[in-house]
Structures are given as C-alpha cells and as structure tokens.
From TrEMBL:
Keywords: Hydrolase. Residues 4-171 form the Isochorismatase-like domain. Gene3D superfamilies: Isochorismatase-like. This is Isochorismatase family protein.
C-alpha cells in the first residue's frame, strides 16, 4: 500500500502571530523532520501544504513574505509538491487528491500546525475520501483557545479521531514500526 506524508501549515506565518508565544510546541519542526526522514527512507511521498490568505494583508497573505516553511524544517526534495491552500483542509482548494490518486496512494500520515483545525480537518476529509489515515499527534501543535488548554484540545482531537477517522500514533511508534505501519 502506498503512503504519503502530508505536512500541513508548518510555516513562518504562525510565528508572526501573537498566539505563537502560547504554542504548545514551538519546536514542532523537530518531530516533523523525523517524520520526513522516515517517509523518505520508506519511499513514501512527502507533500508540503501551506495555508494562504491572498489579499488579507495578514500573516498568511503571500505578499507579506511569511507563507513559507519554518526555517528549521527540511527543505522539500525534488519531486515533493508544495501546495498552497485557502481552506482549512488540504484537499478542497488544492490538487492534493489528484496527486494522491495519480500516485496510487491509499494511506495518509498527517502532521502539522493547529492540531484541531487544519490537521484534524484534513484527516477527516481524507478518511471520508477513503484513505487510511495516521494522525501523528506529537508532530502537531496548537495553542490554547479560550479556557481550553492546548493539552485538552489535543486530547479532544485524539478522542474524536481515534478508530473513527484515523489511527493515532506518535513519531517514535512509527519509527519503531519502520516499514510496517498501516492505518
């Protein structure tokens, strides 16, 4: 079964926001880089996704120059697509599904910024489209929302996705399985 790692919104735009000070894991690039290395070693496709809000004048407006991968991240290798989305999930406003279909991908490994927003939404849509989904929680991050801590948001996300939309895994679990993980 062919897999693809989808790296969602791990971008400088978030560092420009005041909420970055409260992000649960400001070193999100570390676990994401481990996943990228694992995917490449396994021969899996790696697809990079960046959120954009053209014309907004904000941190996600490409004209502001922050809609780029975090500096600490591995750079996309030749042949690894970099998609730009304007919706919460990585499918609706991109050619992601076409790329996956053409490559024969049946399983997605998802990670990125805003555990409960763009990463969760991509996992749900991917599941609805028939993909097996592995949600790598420790390669996601978010910040508190209102009275909810980042930790409680992550717990809630795991609870609603587990065994319904995705298999929940950690980077270390996937590394230990190397070559054998499936949704």
């Amino acid at each position: 079964m062919k897999r693809a790692l989808i790296v969602i919104d791990v971008q400088e735009s978030f560092r420009a926001l005041p909420s970055w000070e409260r992000i649960a894991n400001p070193k999100i690039a570390d676990p994401v880089n481990r996943l990228v290395g694992l995917a490449r070693a396994e021969g899996d496709q790696v697809i990079w996704v960046l959120h954009t809000e053209p014309g907004s004048g904000g941190a996600f407006d490409p004209e502001q120059g922050r809609t780029r991968l975090l500096e600490e991240l591995e750079r996309p290798a030749p042949g690894e697509p970099v998609l730009h989305k304007t919706a919460h999930n990585a499918f609706t406003t991109t050619r992601l599904q076409r790329l996956l279909t053409e490559a024969g991908v049946r399983e997605l490994v998802v990670c990125g910024i805003r555990t409960e927003q763009c990463v969760e939404t991509t996992a749900r849509v991917g599941s609805d489209l028939g993909y097996g989904v592995v949600f790598v929680t420790d390669a996601t991050t978010t910040h508190p929302i209102g009275a909810l801590s980042a930790e409680s948001i992550v717990e809630r996300t795991e609870a609603v996705l587990r065994d319904r939309f995705a298999r929940i895994a950690t980077v270390a679990e996937l590394e230990a399985e190397s070559g054998a993980f499936t949704a």
